[in-house]
C-alpha cells in the first residue's frame, strides 16, 4: 500500500521563503515551539527531573522506531513490533523466575533471559522478513499476522497472567541510573548510534536505501535483496525485543496484555514526523529521534496541563499531521 | 495447466474456504445452520462488511484507511444523538459524520499530499477523540421509539435489514467497479498513479472519492452499530480497520492496488465472521475451551495460510509472465 | 415474564466474558470455571476481547446453541440490551454479573433474572470516605482514571468526585487516564507528579495503576505513604501487600470471585425461587487495620 | 527498413540555412505556437527560451542532445508540469492547461518518454480508458475490446486485448501507448521517443500510421535521436540546445551534418560515412570461449538458444520484436530460471539461481527498461554508479568513502555525464544521462561479461558515439560484451559476431564476411540466411 508516490504533479516553484525554512526543519520547529510553549505554561517544566521523565517515557518508542525506520527505509512497515515486545517481555521473566532461576547465580539467569527473549523477538522478525522476502507478501499484511497472533502467543504462554518479580539485577535496566542518567537512556543512545553509523558508513546501509529506492533495480544490480529485507525485519524484531525488556524492567512486572500495546503506531508516527518517507529509500534516524521526542512532548504537555484524554487525541493528531505535512512540503520543492 | 487451476482456486479461494467452513460447521455442530444462527451471523457482520467494502476500494487505489473503526464509533454516537428525531435524521447524522471524516482523509491525501497511512492514522486519532468528546465519555442511548432502531434490529421477511443493506451496497460496488469508467479508474490509479495521470485520468479525483466513500460507509456502519445495539458507542470500533484489511486481503485483493474483487471481499468478511462462530460452537461442544488468546493465534494462522497461498500463486504467475 | 429453567443435575451454561486482558477478569473467569467444574456443569465460554458488538454476537451464538442459561458480564450497560432481550425471546434465562444493563431498557426480574455485582459508584465513594477520615493534613489530590469512556472509570470517578466535592478542603488538581495498566499508570503519575509537586494524595481507579504510580513516586526519590498517600480500588494481593508495607493507604475490594454466588443463584432460580433484582457482592475494604489477615484470601 | 534507406537525407547545407525560419515571428495559420517557454528546477534551468511552431497536418521532429529540454517542453506544454513563463497559443487561442487530461480534452494527446500505462489493467482498458464506449451508462466491454483490437490492428498487432498489459513486451506496451494516443481524435499527437523500443519493421508500421494521421489533417510532434527516422517521416525539424530553440527548418532542406552540428553546437566529423562510432577490433584477437550457452530455454519466450561468446569480443544479438532476446539475457543473468539446457562460464559449469550468482561470477546486465530496472531514483548519481562495487571497496562492510567518490568522479568525467554534481539525484537527470550513469555503474564493476540490452536507446548522437567507443574500449581490454540491439547498423558495425534469434530459437550464428544486412534480416524473418548457410543448431 505504501507505494502511492508523492506525486510530482503540480510543482509550485516558488514555495514561500518562510515556509521553506519551516519545512526543512519541520520536526525541529515543532519541537522548539513545544518547548517554548511548555516553558511558558507548564508548571515546573524546567528541571532535570522533567528531562529524565520524558527520556524514560520515550525510550521504548525510540528503540522500536530505530528498527522501524530501517524497515521503512526498504519500503516496508512492521506492525508486529508491539506484539514482539509482549513476547520478549513475557519470555524473560519466565526464564529468570522459572526453571533456570534456581539453577545457579541469578545474574546468569538474567543474562540468559535477556539473550533468549531478544533472540526470540529477532527470530520472529526473521519470520516477518521471510514472509516479505520469500513470498513477496506486502509488509503490512505479513506483519499483521504476528500483530494478531503474536500477542496471542504471549498471552497463551502465561495464560494472560501478570508476572511480577523483584529482581534488582534485571530491574536495573529500567530503574537504574549512571551518572544520574537512567540506564535505559544509554541503551537507547547506543542503539541509535549504532543504527546511524550503520546507515551512514556501511555497505548494508547503502543496500537498504537501494532496496527501498527501487527494488527491481536492486535485484538486477545483484544486491542480496532478500537477505537485506530479512535483516531489517530481524533488526526491527531485535529492537522490539529490547524495548519489551525495558518496559518490564521499569515496572518490575510483565503484563502480556499491555506490553507494547499500540507502540507500532507511535513508532511509525515518529518515523514519519522525523521526515523519512514512508515510501522507502530514506532513513533519517536523527529525525526519527526528534519525531519521537516531539510526540512525547505533545503527550507530556497535554497531560501536565490537564487536557482531557479525548481532546488530547485530537491535538496529537493535528500536530502529527502538521509536522508530516511540513516535512513533505520540503520534499516537493 | 496446473498453475492456472491453482490461480482459479485462489481467485475463489475465499469462497471455497467459506463453503468448506460452513459445511464443516453444519456437520459438526447442532443448530449451526439454524435460521437463527445464520441470520444473526449475517446481522452481526453487516457493519464489518460495509467497512470492508470501503476498504476494498481504498486498497484498490493502492491506499489504506486506518480510520474506519474510529470513524464508525464517532458516527454511531452522532447517529444515537440524532435518533430521537427519527430514522432519517439519525441516518443522515451518522453517514454525514462518516462522510466528513472521509473528506478530511481525502483532503489530507490529495491536497496536503500526506501518505494514506499517515493521513488516516491521524484521522483515526482525531475521530477517536471526537467520539469521546461528543459522547462525553459515555455510551449514548438511542431512541427506541422513533423507528431508528429498525434499521439495525428490523427484518425484511427473514432477512435482517443490515444484511440487506450491505448486500445491496456490495452489488452496487461491484457494478461500479466493473461497469463504470470511474471503477476502472480506481484500478488504474492503484496500478500506476502517475501513469494514470499521464493517461489523462484523474487519480486525485478518484482518490478523493474512494476515501470519502470509505468514510461514508464507515459512517453507515456506525449507524448500524448504534441501531443494532441501541447505543452510540465511542469506544467500539477498535481494530475494525485491521479486520477489514484482513478480509480484503483474504478476498484476494492485491494490497499494492490495481486489482481486486468486491464479492470476494464479502466472502472474506463472512469467512472471518464464520470462523468466530465456529470457534464459539467448538467451545460449546465442551471438548476444548479456547481462550481469546488462542483465538487470536488461530486468526493469525488463518491469515498466514491465506496470504502464503495467495503469494505462491502470484509468484507463479509472475514467473510465467516475466517481463 | 421470565423464561423458566428446568431442574436438572447438570446444566450447560454459557458464560459470555467481556475481555480477559487484566488480572481481575482472569480471576473472575477462573472462579466461574472452577465452580462449574466443582458442580459438574458444562461451561460454554466466550470472550469478547473488549468489544460490546462481539459480546452480543457471542450471546447470539449461545442462543443458537441452546444453552440452558447465560451468565453475561455486559461490557456496557446499553449495547448488550438487545442481546439480553434476544435470549429472553428464545426462552433462555440470563443472569448478569459484575455490571448491570440500563434499567430503562431491560428490567431485572422481567427481562433477565438478576444482577450480581458490585456497585462501582459505591466503591469510589467508600474510598473517598476513608480518605476524608484518614488524610490528616493532606488535601491535594491527583486522580488517575481507568480507560476513558469505560463504565468502571466513569462510575468510580463519579462516586469519588461527588463525595470529595462535599469536603471543600480537598482539591483534585488533575485527573487523567492511566488506561487501567501499570505502565500507563506509572507514566501518567510521573507526569502529573512533576507538574503538580504539591500533590500529596493519589487516587487511582485500579490497583494495577496504583502499583505503577507508587513506582513512579519511588523513582523520583520520594516515599509512598509518607510524602504521598495512595488510595485505590480492587484489593488484589500485591496491593494488600503494599498496604502491609505502608505504601498504600487503602484499597476497596472489588471481588472477582463470582463463581459461587452465580451458581447459587442458578440453583435457586431452577428451584423456582424468585430472586431479588440485585444481589450485591459485599466488597471488603482493606486498610492497615486488616491487611495482614487479608493477605491470606486476597486474590 | 526500406523506409529508412529510402529517406532523403543529405541536402545541401547552404540551402538549409537559407530556409531557416524563426518561429518567434507571429503566424496566424499555425496550429500551435510556443514562445519563450521557461522552466526552472531547483538545480537547473531545463527550459530557458523554447519556441516551436506547428502547422496544420504537419509532422514536426523535435531534436536535441540528451538534456536539451525536449521532454520538459512537452511536459510543460501538456500541463504535466507547470511552466514558469512563456506563451502558448493553440488554434490561435491562449493555451493554459494544468493536467494532461485537460490538454487531451483540448485536442492534444501525448505519449510521454517513459511508457506510462497501467500494467495490471487489460490492454483494452489501457487503450480506451477515459473515453470508453458505454451502453446505458455502463461500460460496454465488447465495444471496448473491439475498438482496442482495431487500433492495434493498424500496427499489425494481434493479441488478446483482455490480458493485462504487463504481460506483454516493452514494444507491445509502446504500441499500446501509441494506439491509445491516436485513438483520441486529437488535432495534435505528441510522441516523445516512441521508437526507442521498436524495431525497424515496427517503426515502419508506426510511420504508416503517422502518415495516415497527417492525411487526416492531424499534426504530429515527434522526438527521436535516430536521424534516419527523422528524415523519413518529418516535414520540418526543430533543434533545441540547452533549453533554447536554436533552429527550425524544412527536413529536406536541412543537411545531416548541419543538423548534427547544430544539435551539438560544434562540428562533427562524419567523414567515414558510418552511422555509428564503432571501429572493428583488430579482428581475430578474440580469445577462448568465455560463455557457452547450450539450448537453454524456459516456459516463456526463449525456448532453445545456443551461442558462444569469446573473450574480448562483442557478440551482437539480433531478432525481431518478441523473438526472445531480452529473455535470453535474463536467463543468462539468473534473473529467470532456465528449465532446460546448460551453460558454461569461464571454463566452469554455470547455473545461476539468482542475479547475485551471475554478478559474483563476473557478469553485468544493463537492462532495457532503465526506469523500472535500472536507476535508484532518489539516490545520488555517485551512489548509483558505485552501488555495485561497494562489496569490493572498504573492509568488513564499512565503506571507503573517499575511494568511492573518486571512482564516481572519474566515470562521470569519462562518460561526460551531465549533472550539477555527483550528489545530484539521478531522477533529475535527462533520460539519456540516466542511461550513461547506468553504463558507468556496470563499467565500474569491470565485469568479465557485460550484457547490454539496447545500450544506446534514447541516447543522442554525440553521446551514442562516446558510448560505442567506450564499449569497444572495454572489449579491447579483454572484456566481453553481449549486445542486444534493434538497430541493425549498431550490430553490423559494432559486433564481431552475431547470433540471430527467431521465435525464441537461435537460428543463425554469423561471423566474419557472413555478416551482412541481408543475411541478418533474412535470418530474423525466415530463420535462415539467404547468402550463406547459417551455422544454426
Ligand atoms: N525533476 C527534475 N528536477 C531537476 N532537473 C530536471 C528535472 N527534470 C529534468 N531536469 C533537467 O532538465 C533538463 C532537460 O531534461 P529533459 O528530460 O527535457 O531532456 P531531453 O531533451 O528530453 O533529453 P533526452 O533526450 O535524454 O530524453 C536536464 O538537464 C535535466 O537534468
Ligand atoms: N506483433 C506482435 N503481436 C503480438 N504479440 C507480440 C508482437 N510482438 C511481440 N509480441 C509479444 O511481445 C513479447 C516479447 O518479449 P521480449 O521482450 O522477450 O522480446 P525481445 O526479443 O527481447 O524484444 P525487445 O526486447 O526488442 O522488445 C512476447 O510476449 C510476444 O508475445
Ligand atoms: Mg527526453
Ligand atoms: Mg528486449
From TrEMBL, chain A:
Keywords: Cell membrane, Membrane, Transmembrane, Transmembrane helix. It is a multi-pass membrane protein. Its main location: membrane. GO terms for molecular function: transmembrane transporter activity. One of its GO terms (cellular component) is plasma membrane. The keyword Cell membrane applies. It holds the Pfam family BPD_transp_2. It is found in: Cell membrane. It comes from the Bacteria. The chain crosses the membrane at residues 21-41, 53-72, 79-100, 106-127, 139-158, 170-197, 230-250, 310-326. This is ABC transporter permease. It comes from Pararobbsia silviterrae.
TrEMBL record, chain B:
Pfam families: BPD_transp_2 (PF02653). One of its GO terms (cellular component) is plasma membrane. It is found in: Cell membrane. One of its GO terms (molecular function) is transmembrane transporter activity. The chain crosses the membrane at residues 12-29, 50-79, 85-107, 114-135, 159-177, 208-231, 237-255, 262-281, 293-313. It is a multi-pass membrane protein. CDD domains: TM_PBP1_transp_AraH_like. Its main location: membrane. Keywords: Cell membrane, Membrane, Transmembrane, Transmembrane helix. This is ABC transporter permease. It comes from Pararobbsia silviterrae. The lineage of its organism: Bacteria, Pseudomonadati, Pseudomonadota, Betaproteobacteria, Burkholderiales.
TrEMBL record, chain D:
SMART domains: AAA. InterPro entries: AAA+_ATPase, ABC_carbohydrate_import_ATPase, ABC_transporter-like_ATP-bd, ABC_transporter-like_CS, P-loop_NTPase. Residues 1-27 are annotated as: Disordered. The keyword Cytoplasm does not apply. It is found in: Cell membrane. GO terms for cellular component: plasma membrane. The keyword Transmembrane helix does not apply. This is Sugar ABC transporter ATP-binding protein. It comes from Pararobbsia silviterrae.
Amino acid at each position: 500500500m505504501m507505494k502511492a508516490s508523492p506525486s510530482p504533479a503540480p510543482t509550485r516553484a516558488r514555495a514561500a521563503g518562510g515556509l521553506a525554512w519551516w519545512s526543512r526543519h519541520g520536526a525541529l520547529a515543532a519541537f522548539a515551539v513545544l518547548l517554548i510553549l511548555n516553558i511558558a505554561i507548564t508548571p515546573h517544566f524546567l528541571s532535570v527531573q522533567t528531562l529524565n521523565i520524558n527520556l524514560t517515557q520515550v525510550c521504548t518508542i525510540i528503540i522500536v522506531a530505530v528498527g522501524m525506520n530501517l524497515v521503512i527505509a526498504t519500503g516496508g512497515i512492521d506492525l508486529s513490533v508491539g506484539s514482539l515486545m509482549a513476547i520478549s517481555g513475557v519470555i524473560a521473566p519466565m526464564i529468570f523466575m522459572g526453571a533456570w532461576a534456581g539453577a545457579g547465580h541469578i545474574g546468569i539467569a538474567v543474562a540468559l533471559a535477556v539473550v533468549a527473549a531478544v533472540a526470540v523477538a529477532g527470530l520472529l522478525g526473521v519470520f516477518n522478513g521471510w514472509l516479505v522476502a520469500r513470498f513477496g507478501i506486502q509488509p503490512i499484511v505479513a506483519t499483521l499476522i504476528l500483530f494478531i497472533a503474536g500477542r496471542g502467543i504471549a498471552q497463551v504462554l502465561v495464560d494472560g497472567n501478570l508476572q511480577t518479580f523483584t529482581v534488582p539485577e534485571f530491574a536495573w535496566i529500567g530503574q537504574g541510573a549512571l551518572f544520574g542518567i537512567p540506564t535505559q537512556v544509554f541503551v537507547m543512545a547506543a542503539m541509535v548510534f549504532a543504527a546511524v553509523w550503520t546507515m551512514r558508513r556501511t555497505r548494508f546501509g547503502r543496500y537498504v536505501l537501494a532496496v527501498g529506492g527501487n527494488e527491481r533495480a536492486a535485484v538486477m544490480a545483484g544486491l542480496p535483496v532478500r537477505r537485506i529485507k530479512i535483516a531489517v525485519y530481524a533488526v526491527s524484531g531485535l529492537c522490539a525485543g529490547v524495548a519489551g525488556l525495558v518496559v518490564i524492567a521499569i515496572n518490575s512486572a510483565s503484563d502480556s496484555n499491555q506490553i507494547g500495546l499500540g507502540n507500532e503506531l507511535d513508532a511509525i508516527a515518529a518515523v514519519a514526523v522525523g521526515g523519512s518517507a514512508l515510501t522507502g529509500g530514506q532513513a533519517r534516524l536523527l529525525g526519527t529521534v526528534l519525531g519521537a521526542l516531539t510526540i512525547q512532548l505533545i503527550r507530556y504537555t497535554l497531560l501536565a496541563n490537564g487536557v482531557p484524554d479525548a481532546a488530547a487525541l485530537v491535538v496529537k493528531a493535528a500536530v502529527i499531521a502538521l509536522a508530516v505535512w511540513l516535512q513533505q512540503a520540503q520534499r516537493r520543492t | 495447466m496446473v498453475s492456472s487451476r491453482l490461480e482459479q482456486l485462489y481467485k475463489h479461494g475465499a469462497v471455497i474456504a467459506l463453503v468448506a467452513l460452513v459445511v464443516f460447521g453444519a456437520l459438526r455442530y447442532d443448530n449451526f445452520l439454524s435460521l437463527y444462527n445464520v441470520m444473526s451471523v449475517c446481522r452481526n457482520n453487516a457493519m464489518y462488511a460495509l467497512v470492508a467494502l470501503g476498504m476494498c476500494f481504498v486498497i484498490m487505489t493502492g491506499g489504506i484507511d486506518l480510520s474506519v473503526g474510529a470513524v464508525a464509533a464517532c458516527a454511531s454516537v452522532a447517529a444515537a444523538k440524532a435518533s430521537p428525531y427519527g430514522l432519517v435524521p439519525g441516518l443522515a447524522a451518522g453517514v454525514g459524520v462518516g462522510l466528513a471524516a472521509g473528506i478530511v482523509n481525502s483532503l489530507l491525501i490529495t491536497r496536503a499530499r500526506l501518505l494514506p497511512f499517515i493521513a488516516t492514522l491521524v484521522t483515526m486519532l482525531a475521530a477517536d477523540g471526537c467520539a469521546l468528546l461528543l459522547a462525553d465519555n459515555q455510551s449514548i442511548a438511542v431512541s427506541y421509539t422513533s423507528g431508528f432502531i429498525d434499521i439495525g434490529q428490523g427484518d425484511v421477511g427473514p432477512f435482517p435489514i443490515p444484511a440487506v443493506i450491505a448486500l445491496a451496497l456490495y452489488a452496487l460496488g461491484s457494478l461500479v467497479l466493473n461497469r463504470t469508467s470511474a471503477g476502472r479508474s480506481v484500478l488504474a490509479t492503484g496500478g500506476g498513479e502517475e501513469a494514470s495521470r499521464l493517461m489523462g485520468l484523474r487519480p486525485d479525483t478518484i482518490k478523493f472519492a474512494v476515501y470519502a466513500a470509505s468514510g461514508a460507509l464507515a459512517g453507515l456502519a456506525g449507524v448500524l452499530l448504534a441501531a443494532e445495539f441501541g447505543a452510540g458507542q465511542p469506544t467500539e470500533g477498535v481494530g475494525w480497520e485491521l479486520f477489514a484489511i484482513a478480509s480484503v486481503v483474504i478476498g484476494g485483493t492485491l494490497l499494492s492496488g490495481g486489482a481486486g474483487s468486491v464479492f470476494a471481499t464479502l466472502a472474506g468478511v463472512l469467512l472471518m465472521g464464520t470462523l468466530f462462530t465456529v470457534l464459539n460452537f467448538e467451545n460449546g461442544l465442551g471438548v476444548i475451551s479456547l481462550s481469546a488468546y488462542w483465538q487470536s493465534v488461530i486468526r493469525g494462522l488463518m491469515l498466514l495460510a491465506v496470504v502464503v497461498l495467495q503469494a505462491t500463486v502470484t509468484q507463479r504467475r509472475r514467473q510465467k509472465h516475466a517481463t | 415474564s421470565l423464561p423458566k429453567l428446568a431442574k436438572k443435575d447438570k446444566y450447560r451454561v454459557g458464560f459470555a466474558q467481556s475481555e480477559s486482558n487484566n488480572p481481575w477478569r482472569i480471576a473472575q473467569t477462573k472462579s466461574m470455571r472452577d465452580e462449574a467444574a466443582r458442580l459438574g456443569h458444562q461451561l460454554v465460554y466466550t470472550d469478547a476481547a473488549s468489544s460490546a458488538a462481539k459480546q452480543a454476537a457471542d450471546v447470539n451464538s449461545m442462543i443458537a446453541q441452546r444453552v440452558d442459561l447465560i451468565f453475561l458480564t455486559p461490557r456496557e450497560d446499553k449495547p448488550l440490551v438487545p442481546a439480553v432481550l434476544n435470549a429472553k425471546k428464545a426462552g433462555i434465562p440470563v443472569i448478569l454479573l459484575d455490571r448491570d444493563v440500563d434499567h430503562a431498557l431491560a428490567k431485572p426480574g422481567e427481562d433477565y433474572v438478576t444482577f450480581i455485582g458490585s456497585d462501582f459508584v459505591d466503591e469510589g465513594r467508600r474510598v473517598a470516605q476513608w480518605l476524608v477520615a484518614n488524610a490528616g493534613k493532606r488535601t491535594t489530590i491527583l486522580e488517575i482514571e481507568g480507560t476513558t469512556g469505560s463504565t468502571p472509570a466513569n462510575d468510580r470517578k463519579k462516586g469519588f468526585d461527588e463525595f470529595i466535592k462535599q469536603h471543600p478542603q480537598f482539591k483534585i488538581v488533575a485527573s487523567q487516564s492511566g488506561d487501567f495498566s501499570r505502565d500507563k499508570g506509572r507514566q501518567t503519575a510521573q507526569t502529573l507528579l512533576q507538574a503538580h509537586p504539591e500533590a500529596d494524595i493519589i487516587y487511582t481507579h485500579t490497583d494495577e495503576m496504583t502499583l505503577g504510580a507508587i513506582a513512579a513516586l519511588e523513582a523520583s526519590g520520594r516515599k509512598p505513604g509518607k510524602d504521598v498517600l495512595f488510595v485505590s480500588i480492587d484489593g488484589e494481593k500485591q496491593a494488600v501487600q503494599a498496604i502491609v508495607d505502608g505504601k498504600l493507604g487503602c484499597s476497596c475490594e472489588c471481588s472477582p470471585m463470582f463463581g459461587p454466588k452465580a451458581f447459587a443463584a442458578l440453583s435457586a432460580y431452577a428451584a423456582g425461587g424468585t430472586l431479588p433484582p440485585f444481589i450485591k457482592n459485599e466488597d471488603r475494604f482493606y486498610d492497615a487495620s486488616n491487611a495482614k489477615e487479608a493477605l491470606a484470601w486476597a486474590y | 527498413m526500406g523506409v529508412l534507406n529510402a529517406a532523403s537525407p543529405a541536402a545541401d547545407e547552404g540551402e538549409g540555412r537559407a530556409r531557416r525560419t524563426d518561429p518567434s515571428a507571429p503566424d496566424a495559420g499555425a496550429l500551435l505556437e510556443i514562445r519563450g517557454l521557461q522552466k526552472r528546477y531547483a538545480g537547473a534551468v531545463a527550459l530557458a527560451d523554447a519556441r516551436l511552431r506547428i502547422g496544420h497536418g504537419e509532422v514536426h521532429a523535435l531534436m536535441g542532445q540528451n538534456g536539451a529540454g525536449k521532454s520538459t517542453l512537452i511536459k510543460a506544454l501538456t500541463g504535466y508540469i507547470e511552466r514558469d513563463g512563456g506563451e502558448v497559443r493553440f488554434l490561435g487561442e491562449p493555451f493554459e492547461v494544468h493536467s494532461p487530461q485537460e490538454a487531451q480534452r483540448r485536442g492534444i494527446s501525448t505519449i510521454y518518454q517513459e511508457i506510462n500505462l497501467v500494467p495490471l489493467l487489460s490492454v483494452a482498458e489501457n487503450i480506451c480508458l477515459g473515453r470508453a464506449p458505454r451502453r446505458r451508462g455502463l461500460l460496454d466491454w465488447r465495444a471496448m475490446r473491439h475498438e482496442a483490437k482495431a487500433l492495434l490492428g493498424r500496427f499489425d498487432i494481434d493479441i488478446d486485448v483482455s490480458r493485462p498489459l504487463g504481460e506483454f513486451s516493452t514494444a507491445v506496451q509502446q504500441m499500446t501507448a501509441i494506439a491509445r494516443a491516436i485513438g483520441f481524435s486529437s488535432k495534435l499527437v505528441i510522441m516523445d521517443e516512441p521508437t526507442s523500443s521498436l524495431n525497424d519493421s515496427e517503426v515502419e508500421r508506426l510511420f504508416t500510421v503517422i502518415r495516415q494521421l497527417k492525411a487526416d489533417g492531424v499534426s504530429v510532434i515527434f522526438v527521436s535521436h535516430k536521424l534516419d527516422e527523422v528524415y523519413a517521416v518529418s516535414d520540418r525539424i526543430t533543434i533545441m540546445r540547452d533549453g533554447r530553440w536554436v533552429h527550425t527548418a524544412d527536413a529536406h532542406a536541412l543537411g545531416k551534418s548541419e543538423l548534427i552540428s547544430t544539435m551539438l553546437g560544434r562540428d562533427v566529423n562524419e567523414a567515414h560515412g558510418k552511422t555509428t562510432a564503432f571501429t572493428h577490433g583488430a579482428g581475430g584477437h578474440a580469445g577462448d570461449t568465455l560463455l557457452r550457452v547450450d539450448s537453454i530455454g524456459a516456459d516463456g519466450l526463449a525456448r532453445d538458444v545456443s551461442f558462444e561468446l569469446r573473450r574480448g569480443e562483442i557478440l551482437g544479438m539480433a531478432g525481431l520484436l518478441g523473438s526472445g532476446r531480452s529473455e535470453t539475457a535474463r536467463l543468462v543473468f539468473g534473473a529467470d530460471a532456465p528449465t532446460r539446457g546448460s551453460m558454461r562460464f569461464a571454463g566452469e559449469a554455470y547455473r545461476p539461481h539468482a542475479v547475485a550468482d551471475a554478478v559474483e561470477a563476473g557478469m553485468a546486465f544493463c537492462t532495457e527498461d532503465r526506469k523500472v530496472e535500472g536507476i535508484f531514483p532518489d539516490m545520488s548519481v555517485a551512489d548509483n554508479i558505485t552501488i555495485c562495487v561497494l562489496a569490493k571497496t572498504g573492509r568488513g562492510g564499512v565503506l571507503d568513502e573517499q575511494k568511492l567518490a573518486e571512482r564516481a568522479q572519474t566515470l562521470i568525467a569519462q562518460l561526460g555525464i551531465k549533472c550539477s554534481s555527483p550528489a545530484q539525484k539521478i531522477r533529475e537527470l535527462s533520460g539519456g544521462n540516466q542511461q550513461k550513469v547506468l553504463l558507468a555503474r556496470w563499467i565500474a564493476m569491470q565485469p568479465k561479461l557485460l550484457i547490454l540490452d539496447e545500450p544506446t536507446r534514447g541516447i543522442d548522437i554525440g553521446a551514442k558515439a562516446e558510448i560505442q567507443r567506450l564499449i569497444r574500449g572495454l572489449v579491447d581490454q579483454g572484456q566481453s560484451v553481449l549486445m542486444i540491439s534493434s538497430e541493425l547498423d549498431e550490430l553490423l558495425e559494432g559486433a564481431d559476431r552475431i547470433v540471430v534469434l527467431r521465435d525464441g530459437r537461435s537460428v543463425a550464428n554469423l561471423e566474419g564476411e557472413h555478416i551482412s544486412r541481408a543475411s541478418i534480416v533474412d535470418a530474423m524473418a525466415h530463420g535462415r540466411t539467404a547468402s550463406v548457410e547459417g551455422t544454426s543448431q
